[in-house]
Design brief:
The protein has 16 helices and 14 strands. By secondary structure, the protein is α/β, with parallel strands linked by helices. Helix 10 packs antiparallel against helix 11. The protein is elongated, with a radius of gyration of 24 Å. The N and C termini lie far apart (58 Å).
Length: 438
């Protein structure tokens, strides 16, 4: 089987590489010439555990190729995945320009039947816009070429994307005819041999499923963050509360870990988009709008604790930052709480020294020389007034606290992920601030 994946960002690369790993012949397309050159050389532009080895292996086996134009790999392709970016507009709506540009090009080129699949996260109705765009281009050619549409939203967690794709909890596919069902079923057959379900449904339902899932998870995060903030006020301990409610089988413990707010490429964008989709239909999503507001508040919680501790005088304070990516096992800093904290610290006149195992380069692109970058976690502590843990990378879990005490000017820790034991740290002479911890 031969397919094409348009877009070599996070979703496109993982999709193309994992299909190739299952034996499919895949052409990944991107208009970024430099990126395609890097990929052909086996250089991976994103950080995702396990992805590089799969790409290199399938390039060698000639199952995975890269191109800068759709025309280079469309011949013989049965399925074309659109996996380009849909960044949020100022009003929160998803920007579909990239998606529709790809659709236009497909309509100008296809000569035989294909299934065009939206892999990008898109609002309800986008597949019909793609269909209309492709059909209009075919008609301009005065030709008759059949094609079908499908929606196949991704459910990939950054840092665990390969396992998520190869061993999916579920595969959601929106279709509108049996021919498309047969093609998509054949394509995904290797991934459901262990009884992982393919959930076939209508296209609009598939399109909204991704938004609904992310909005639900974002709701849980914002809920537990608000309870943690209440624990701070009342003198309760969020860890005890979390265990107490998480043991209820109706609730469960996943996504009930308080922190500095959700970030990344999915939750913020998708929450905004589903709110906008509802507004376009004259409906107000009260709960989900509150989730977004709660998350914006949460991103400022650590800075608020710092400002209170230093009596609103952070000028010339040196603050170490542990963790820049929005979560571990990724270099993604989009909507990361760490960046929000750094901006506020700089505005308050503080200096920042930061370390992250993977996201230094991405942060340097954004912040340049406005902050100092450390080569390891301990270098980020030299002569600092305090350190803020913002991302729970594994190497931060069991640091040498005695060494930390020697390096730091003042022994103050702001634990944005609640991974340390307050009692232990206070015995060691540290001043400790968590989120909702006694």
């Amino acid at each position: 089987m031969r397919i094409m994946v348009v877009g070599t960002g996070y979703v496109g690369l993982v999709t193309g590489a994992c299909f190739a790993e299952s034996g499919v012949n895949v052409t990944c397309v991107d208009i970024d010439i430099d990126k395609i050159k890097q990929l052909k050389d086996g250089t991976i532009p994103i950080y995702e555990p396990g992805l590089e080895s799969i790409i290199r292996s399938n390039i060698e086996k000639k199952r995975l190729t890269f191109a800068t134009g759709i025309n280079e790999g469309i011949e013989g392709s049965e399925v074309i995945f659109i996996a380009v970016g849909t960044p949020p507009g100022e009003d929160g709506s998803a920007d579909l320009n990239h998606v529709l540009n790809v659709a236009k090009e497909i309509g100008q080129i296809i000569k035989q039947h294909v299934v065009v699949v939206t892999k990008s996260t898109v609002p309800v109705g986008t597949s019909e816009k793609i269909r209309s765009t492709i059909q209009a281009e075919i008609e301009k050619r005065h030709e008759s070429v059949s094609f079908d549409m499908a929606s196949n939203p991704e459910f990939l967690k950054e840092g665990a994307a390969i396992d998520d794709f190869l061993k999916p909890e579920r595969i959601v596919i929106g279709i509108d005819n049996e021919k498309t069902r047969e093609i998509m079923n054949r394509l995904y057959m290797p991934f459901v041999l262990n009884n992982h379900p393919i959930l076939f449904m209508d296209i609009p339902s598939a399109e909204i499923t991704k938004y609904a899932a992310n909005a639900m998870l974002a709701t849980r995060i914002s809920f537990i963050n608000e309870i943690a903030n209440l624990c701070d006020i009342l003198g309760a301990d969020i860890n005890n509360v979390r265990k107490g409610i998480g043991s209820d089988s109706r609730i469960g413990s996943k996504f009930l870990y308080p922190g500095t707010g959700y970030g990344g490429s999915c939750f913020p964008k998708d929450v905004k988009a589903i709110i906008r989709t509802a507004k376009d239909s004259s409906y107000k999503l009260n709960v989900i709008e509150a989730v977004e507001q709660a998350n914006e508040y949460q991103k400022n919680v650590i800075f608020g604790k710092m400002a209170k501790f230093y009596n609103d005088d952070l000028k010339n304070r040196i603050i170490g930052i542990w963790g820049l990516s929005f979560k571990p096992k990724t270099d993604d800093i989009r909507e990361a709480s760490s960046i929000n904290l750094i901006e506020k610290l700089l505005k308050a006149g503080a200096r920042v020294k930061a370390y992250d195992p993977a996201a230094i380069n991405e942060t340097r692109k954004l912040l340049g020389t406005r902050i100092e970058y450390a080569s390891d976690l301990y270098e980020a502590l030299v002569n600092v007034d305090a350190v803020a843990l913002m991302t729970e990378w594994s190497e931060f879990h069991l640091p040498d606290f005695n060494r930390m005490a020697e390096l730091m000017k003042e022994k103050v820790i702001f634990d944005g992920r609640n991974i340390y034991d307050p009692t232990q740290l206070r015995k060691l002479g540290f001043t400790y601030f968590g989120i909702g911890r006694r």
